[in-house]
Design brief:
This protein has 270 residues and is of the alpha/beta class. The chain has a domain at 84-263: Uracil-DNA Glycosylase, subunit E, CATH 3.40.470.10. It is 41% helix and 9% strand. The protein has ten helices and six strands; from the N terminus they run αααββααβαβααββαα. It has helices at 3-25, 82-89, 97-100, 124-129, 136-148, 174-191, 201-208, 214-217, 235-240, 244-263, and strands at residues 108-109, 115-119, 157-160, 195-199, 222-224, 227-232. It has a six-stranded mixed sheet, with helices on both faces. It is globular and about 60 Å long. Mean pLDDT is 83; it is low at 25-69. The structure holds uracil.
C-alpha cells in the first residue's frame, strides 16, 4: 500500500479509536446506524451494574462539580494581584494533594498576559521544578506557542486547575478541583486575559460547569465569566495521538485564540 495512504489510514483509525473511547467514558451505549455520532437525544447513559447505585456526575473522578450560575464572590476582591492570590494560597493543605507534592505549582508567565492557558495539574517535572508545563507535554505546548503561534511563552500566562501534582498523574478529583477553584478564579481575575485557552477535558468541564466531550466542544467559542474561552485538546493527548489530524485541529484552535485575543487588543512579544 502507498505509504501516505497507510499513514492517513493510521491517523484516521487513531482518531476514531479516541472518539469511541470518549463516548464510552461518557456512558454512551447505543448509536443510531444513520447518525454520524451520538446526539444527545440518541445517547443513553450507561447503567450502573446491578446493585450499584449510579453516582452523580460530581462524585465521579475528574468530573467537575456543577458551577453555580452566578460567580462566587472572590475573597481577593475585584482586582487582585497574582501575589495576593499566591499569598492566600500559602502552604496549602486544603486537600489531600498536599500530602504527595514536592511543591505548589502556582503559575508561570506574564502577569498581564492577554492569553491564558489552563491545564489540568502538575506532572512529575512540574512538581520537581515548581513551574507548569515543563515536562514532555510542556515542551509541546511551548513549541506550539513559540514556533506555532510565533509569540514568546513568557508573554502568555500558564496555570492549572489544581496546583499540586495528583498521585500517578491521575485526573484531579472533584473535591480537589473545588478546593483549588477559588485560586484559579483569583489568577484569572488578576491576569484579566483577552482569551482563555482550556487544555483538555478536565479544565474545559470545570470552566463550563458541565461534563463535556472535548472532542465535541473543542474549537468552538465558549465564555468564562465574560472572557472568551477556546477549548482544545490537552498537549499530553496530542502526544499520545500524534496524528496530523489532531495536530491540525489544535493548531486551528490556538490560531483562532490568538486572532481573537489580538482583535480584543491583545499584544504579544515575538
Ligand atoms: N499537564 C498539565 O495539565 N499541566 C502541567 O503543568 C503539566 C502537564
Amino acid at each position: 500500500m502507498d505509504r501516505s495512504l497507510a499513514a492517513d489510514l493510521h491517523d484516521a483509525l487513531a482518531s476514531a479509536r479516541e472518539l469511541v473511547r470518549e463516548w464510552f467514558e461518557e456512558g454512551v451505549e447505543i448509536f443510531e446506524r444513520s447518525a454520524g455520532g451520538p446526539k444527545a437525544s440518541e445517547a443513553r447513559p450507561a447503567r450502573a451494574p446491578a446493585g450499584e447505585p449510579t453516582r452523580p456526575a460530581d462524585e465521579r473522578p475528574g468530573v467537575a462539580a456543577q458551577a453555580p450560575l452566578l460567580p462566587t464572590p472572590s475573597p481577593f476582591g475585584a482586582a487582585p494581584t497574582l501575589e495576593a492570590v499566591r499569598e492566600v494560597l500559602g502552604d496549602c493543605t486544603r486537600c489531600r494533594l498536599a500530602e504527595g507534592r514536592t511543591q505548589i505549582v502556582f503559575g508561570d508567565g506574564n502577569p498581564d498576559a492577554d492569553l491564558l492557558f489552563i491545564g489540568e495539574g502538575p506532572g512529575e517535572q512540574e512538581d520537581l521544578q515548581g513551574v507548569p508545563f515543563v515536562g514532555r507535554a510542556g515542551e509541546l505546548l511551548t513549541s506550539m506557542i513559540e514556533r506555532g503561534l510565533g509569540i514568546a511563552r513568557s508573554s502568555v500566562y500558564i496555570c492549572n486547575i489544581v496546583k499540586c501534582r495528583p498521585p500517578q498523574n491521575r485526573t484531579p478529583l472533584a473535591d480537589e478541583v473545588d478546593a483549588c477553584r477559588v485560586f484559579l478564579d483569583g489568577q484569572i481575575d488578576a491576569v484579566r486575559p483577552k482569551v482563555i485557552v482550556a487544555l483538555g477535558k478536565p479544565a474545559t468541564s470545570l470552566l463550563l460547569g458541565r461534563d463535556v466531550s472535548i472532542t465535541r466542544v473543542r474549537g468552538t467559542w465558549q465564555e468564562y465569566r465574560g472572557t472568551p474561552l477556546m477549548p482544545t485538546f490537552h498537549p499530553a493527548f496530542v502526544l499520545r495521538q500524534y496524528t496530523t489530524e489532531i495536530r491540525r485541529l489544535v493548531w486551528e484552535d490556538l490560531k483562532a485564540a490568538l486572532v481573537r485575543a489580538r482583535e480584543r487588543g491583545g499584544r504579544f512579544e515575538d
